[in-house]
Specification:
single chain, 3 helices, 85 residues
């Protein structure tokens, strides 16, 4: 299971900070929500349901955007692999 690193900080304005590398990034409101949901441990399916309901977008359309966003987080080394027990 892929999760957001625990030490990732995000501000109310969309400023994302990785203290382990010192790097920072900016995300929009939807990105902030998705990162917050990831920090809460929500699954991709739960995030899809929450975002598509709030923004009235169909799940298939959102899935592409979500996968792109997750790839971006992976490229910036903000995700970690957590083994399920």
């Amino acid at each position: 299971m892929i999760r957001l690193k625990k030490n990732i900080a995000i501000s109310d304005t969309g400023f994302v900070f990785d203290p382990s590398t010192g790097e920072s990034f900016n995300v929009n409101e939807t990105g902030m929500q998705m990162i917050s949901f990831l920090k809460e441990g929500k699954t991709p399916e739960e995030i899809t349901a929450l975002i598509t309901q709030e923004y009235n977008i169909d799940p298939l359309s959102f899935e592409k955007y979500f996968q792109d966003f997750m790839e971006m987080l992976k490229q910036f080394n903000l995700l970690t692999e957590k083994k399920e027990v």
